[in-house]
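Fold it.
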Amino acid sequence: MTGEARRPGVVDEVQVFQAPKNTAELASSPNSKIATMEVEPGGKLDLSAKDSDEILVVLSGRCTVEVPSGKHELHSGQGFLIPLGMGWQVSNSGKEPTSILSLLTRRTTPYVTNVASDVTLKIPVDFVDGLGIGRALYAYIIDRRIIGISPHIMEEWNQASLLRMNCKFTRDGDTLRATLPERVVRWYGIDDLNDDDYTLTHDRRRSRVKVDITPHLARHAQRPS
């Protein structure tokens, strides 16, 4: 480190830090952040990887990490990677505090704020519960007429889609009511969706659906200019 005064706020320079035994931000730059989190016995943290994938390493103690796909028991020296946009919970059922190191590398592209629209889809629960349904639902921009919906981050879609965003949803009996993000709605040029404006096709595992909005596009194409 040089003798010059450090610039206030986020800096882009070499930073030396000592990992403390509590929750604290250790270092931050325009591209990354390093912090520690302390979880007391019986405590829980509900978090979400909002800006980038998040890498966490258990420095001491034991903990349970719960993600949409299930729970994982971890002890000192083990770690986990949480993909962008996925909600997760860490809890400590042991008798000693758990210390976790958090590493984030921020995306080089601008972060898109996730704001819910007024457009909803109705999806039968048995179309997407083949691998279980957790607390998250994801909307994928597949192409100009196909929207992907899944309670899981599907690697095939993740690599091929233009955008993936969290999708708010509620469960009404055997139906999921998914509220599309505003960014997704604007991309497709959707102002509303009736039940007959789209068709649903689920995969063999019933873990995801493709929402084909061709009927909606055809209806709007027939509107007088």
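The first strand starts at residue 24 and ends at 28.
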